[in-house]
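Students often ask why we bother encoding 3D structure as a string. The short answer is that it lets us treat folding as translation between two languages. Here is a chain of 137 residues written in the first language.
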Amino acid sequence: MIYITRRERFNAAHKLFREEWSLEKNEEVFGNCSNPNWHGHNYDLYVTVKGHVNPETGFLIDLKRMKEIMVSEVIDKLDHKNVNLDVDFMKGKMASTEIMAMEIFNVLKPFFEGENVLLHCVRLHETENNYVEYFGD
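And here it is in the second language, the structure alphabet:
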């Protein structure tokens, strides 16, 4: 078994809030992340797949194909967007980094099942100090 990881980057705005809570309660729980005027991050997305090397190509997966999947299914939907308002797979969900990583994993998983590889992990860096890793259920 071998693992390979590809990184892509995107910029997105979001806020953490619960509509059923008061502004004060949101600020108490989420602090500056609940700013009514939103805030943004420069995210780094790392996607790791695993499997066996194809003896004919020497590849686990063609990285050009991996990039195409990541860009069309995730990056194009998130880059320079408002996660809370613009991103189909985040509709009605808390726009935390944890939930984003889980939803990105769910979006990407079917695209790698037919590629003779399996999606192993999604790692999403919100800042240089904070990141989330999700390996599926």
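Translate back mentally: The beta strands are 2-14, 39-51, 81-82, 117-125, 131-134. Keep this in mind for the problem set.
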